[in-house]
Amino acid sequence: MFDEIEMAEAGEHAIELQGEIGKIEAVLSVPKHKNSNFIAVLGHPHSLQGGTMNNKVVTTMARTFRDLGIVSLRMNFRGVGNSGGDFDAGIGESEDMLGIIDALQAKMPQANLVLSGFSFGSYVTYRAACQRDCQLLVSIAPPVHHYDYKAFAQKPKSWLVVQGLSDEVVPAEEVLTFFSPMTGADILEFDETGHFFHGKLIELKQALTEALTKTLNL
Fold first, then answer.
1. Do 107 and 118 form a contact (C-beta atoms < 8 A)?
2. DSSP for 205-217, written as a single string
3. Which residues fall within 8 angstroms of residue 8, CB to CB, at 6 or more apart?
4. What are 136-191's pLDDT values in tens digits?
5. Domains plus CATH for the chain?
6. pTM, full prediction
7. 54 Cβ neighbours under 8 A, 6+ residues apart
8. Fewest CB atoms within 10 Å of the CB: 30, 47, 169, 179?
């Protein structure tokens, strides 16, 4: 599946992967100078509400990892774009992601796994992070009021949460209440920021860059 990943040229490469029940449309983002110590896998917002791997928050995450020298892969979940299957409320989507993670790590066994998801994608990446050895989980606007973020006893080694305080989709107060007492969770709060970070993407990239550099010791 990823036979040429370490030889891939810098840039964005459209690829097709095999999921649990069909093909998965994806983009592999390769930086000019690769840090082979890490690999990032990204998750997009709700599949039935227009979420795709080309969402602006997701591509901001991809650019952040690229500029830090980290290869990232983002995918269209089941039923989105050219990906096969149907929406499965995060369960099947996380199964697909786990299979892709296993294939990536088979080709890059030295690379520490970083998972990063936005909105619904944060639930998919949460489920994957709890079932694999994940160095860092980044959750942007995680909908803790809709999905079970306590489904697994195992938690990520390190959890970075990013939340806009004027989020019109995910209640910021519920996110802060959920994560504030949690050991190992760091929260980045964005004042006057809605769910999709309109007008705040530059600030988001800067904040992610600083947090990832510190947390991953880059």
1. no
2. HHHHHHHHHHHTT
3. 28, 30
4. 999 999 999 999 999 999 889 899 999 999 999 999 999 999 999 998 899 999 99
5. 5-215 (3.40.50.1820)
6. 0.96
7. none
8. 169
